[in-house]
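Technical annex, item 7. During the second reporting period the consortium partners agreed on a shared format for inverse folding records so that results from different sites could be compared directly. Each record opens with the tokenized structure and is followed by the designed sequence. A conforming record, contributed by the partner at site C, is shown below for reference.
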């Protein structure tokens, strides 16, 4: 009974160690990639974030201008449809 439990625990330990080393290797590979991108990249992450903010603001402005034009056109069309009320 104890021998079976001991062998089972040894097997689980080996599997856990294998899993640990695989995850550790993946971590090291990702760290190397990050080092490469941060060293070799001409783009700073802060600059990238600022550029994305500018793009988002520009898109909002464009969308607002389109909405303004659409409402203006709609208002002009509605104004042509309205007839003066007889007095």
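Designed sequence (site C submission):
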């Amino acid at each position: 009974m104890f021998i079976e439990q001991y062998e089972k625990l040894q097997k689980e330990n080996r599997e856990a160690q294998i899993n640990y080393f695989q995850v550790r290797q993946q971590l090291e590979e990702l760290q190397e990639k990050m080092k490469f991108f941060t060293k070799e990249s001409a783009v700073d992450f802060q600059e990238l974030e600022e550029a994305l903010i500018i793009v988002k603001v520009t898109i909002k402005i464009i969308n607002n201008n389109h909405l303004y034009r659409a409402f203006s056109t709609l208002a002009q069309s509605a104004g042509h449809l309205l007839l003066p009320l007889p007095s």
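The radius of gyration is 33 Å. Residues 1-41 form one domain. All partners now use this format for quarterly exchanges.
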